[in-house]
Amino acid sequence: MTSRNKKVITFGTFDVFHVGHLKILERARSLGDRLFVGVSTDALNQSKKGRPPVYRQEERVEIIAALRCVDEVFLEESLELKGDYIRQFRADVLVMGDDWRGRFDDFSSLCEVVYLPRTPAISTTEVIERIRY
Ligand code: C2G
Question: So what's the pLDDT on residue 76?
Answer without folding.
Answer: 98
